[in-house]
Write a structure and sequence with these properties.
The complex is a heterodimer of chains A (about 120) and B (about 300). Chain A has about 120 residues and is mainly alpha-helical. In chain A, about 80% of the residues lie in helices and about 0% in strands. In chain A, helix 2 packs antiparallel against helix 4 (about 55-85). The longest helix of chain A is centred in the middle third of the chain and has 30 residues, at about 55-85. In chain B, helix 1 runs antiparallel to helix 2 (about 35-55) and helix 8 (about 220-245) packs antiparallel against helix 9 (about 245-265). The longest helix of chain B is centred in the middle third of the chain and has 30 residues, at about 90-120. The chains are: A mainly alpha (about 120), B mainly alpha (about 300).
Chain lengths: ~120, ~300
């Protein structure tokens, strides 16, 4: 592809990552690193497309090994990210969770009232 | 699009999903369930690549698609699922070990994709940029994979860290790096005689990366791994350039995440800072000042 367009696209993505999407306070930088490590899982897609378009037996074997290791790396990165997200201290109660709890409580009360009536 | 990028509908959908997820996950008030959007985005693009072959729309590709699905399944199954439950605090050593596994997997993948790319692009002698992309991939893959492997062996106690190198040793390492670059330039510019320089470059890269990884101090391992995540991002950019695909954007985001972490000395919430390396690596130095319980 045209190197100039490629450079523009990469610069845009870098700017987006540096200024917006991945900007967070210091405590969340570790989370950001694990998020982008999970994004390296897109290597699986590159390896799979190499496997599908392989022309020789050597390419087929190499790309199959590449798919295996890429999938292992991606799954490991996702597990690390999941751990990090769930280890976040709950400083403030999550508004959505509070709402969910309220709805659940209401449903429980309605169900009990319904049983008592019947 | 008409600008050279070849992204299909699944790719645009996945890109949108990734950007929304990044915004959601870096916002502390959003819900945790957003993490599942990342594997979903990867699966969407993967399905877009696999489905025509698996459904038999492309003759002769069906069994390759099923081979790819099996390799993905085995790879996911081989990940360390059993290590810890998600609500349990981990130690830094566990995190570094997990990141080392990621680096090994990604490094091997990038190296093999570089080799495949090299084999395919040497047919076209004018495509020096494609050869350069393949070569950069091979170098980054060898460097990153070996770093991950040595970190993993060090954390398991199989390898011991070497002494910090002297000035002359550092000088020798720089000379080796210069030779690697020179061999790479020769391989890119003269594809007809590239085999010997390429093999020699890979051997020297292995030596260079291994010596470097053995000398790193325990305190620096995680930050070095973060830098290597950035290098993987660079390799993804080169892959995206070769394929003119979505990977250009993903690579840019990966580099940005790595820069954020390295520059701002990020912290991890999952680490319990009571014990660091004392019981795991047998004789490795205790992390100074960090061996107190976290509040």
């Amino acid at each position: 592809m045209d190197p100039t367009i490629a450079a523009y696209v990469v610069l845009l993505a870098l700017a987006l990552g540096l200024t917006g999407a991945l900007r967070a306070e210091r405590e969340h930088c570790g989370r950001g690193l694990l998020i982008v490590t999970t994004l390296t899982g897109f290597l699986v897609v590159a390896a799979v497309s190499a496997l599908l378009t392989s022309q020789s037996a050597l390419e087929l074997v190499l790309s199959t090994i590449a798919v295996f290791f890429a999938a292992q790396g991606a799954a490991t990165a996702f597990l690390l990210l999941r751990q990090e997200i769930h280890a976040e201290p709950a400083d403030e109660p999550d508004e959505q969770e509070l709402l969910d709890d309220e709805v659940r409580q209401q449903q429980f009360t309605h169900a009990r009232a319904g049983k008592e009536v019947s | 699009m008409g600008i050279g990028l070849m992204i299909d509908n699944a790719g645009w959908f996945a890109l949108g999903l990734v950007l929304i997820t990044l915004s959601a996950l870096t916002h502390p008030e959003r819900r945790r369930v957003w993490i599942w959007a990342l594997p979903l985005a990867i699966l969407v693009v993967l399905a877009g690549a696999l489905f025509p072959g698996a459904a038999g729309d492309i003759p002769g590709m069906g069994w390759k698609a099923w081979l790819a699905i099996a390799a993905v399944a085995f790879g996911v199954a081989a990940a360390p699922w059993h290590q810890r439950s998600r609500n349990q605090e981990t130690r830094l050593v566990d995190l570094v070990r997990g990141a080392a596994i990621v680096l090994i997997g990604s490094g091997i993948t990038i190296t093999l994709l570089g080799v495949i790319g090299w084999e395919q692009t040497t047919l076209y002698t004018r495509a020096w940029d494609l050869r350069l992309a393949a070569l950069v991939g091979i170098f980054i893959g060898v460097w990153t994979g070996l770093n991950g492997l040595i970190h993993w062996l060090r954390l398991n106690g199989t390898l011991r860290a070497s002494q910090p190198d002297s000035r002359n040793q550092r000088l020798a390492q720089w000379v080796v790096l210069a030779i690697i670059v020179l061999l790479g330039i020769i391989a890119v510019l003269y594809p007809s005689m590239a085999t010997a320089p390429l093999v020699l470059m890979i051997v020297l890269a292995i030596e260079w990366a291994a010596l470097g990884a053995l000398q790193q101090t325990h305190e620096d391992l995680l930050h070095i791994q973060a830098r290597h995540v950035g290098l993987i991002g660079v390799a993804i950019i080169t892959l995206g350039y070769v394929q003119s695909s979505l990977l250009l954007v993903i690579g840019g985001l990966v580099v940005a995440g790595s820069v954020h972490f390295v520059r701002r000395q990020g912290a991890f919430c999952q680490i319990s800072r009571r014990t660091f390396y004392t019981d795991e690596t047998g004789g490795a130095r205790v992390f100074d000042g960090e061996d107190t319980p976290r509040d």
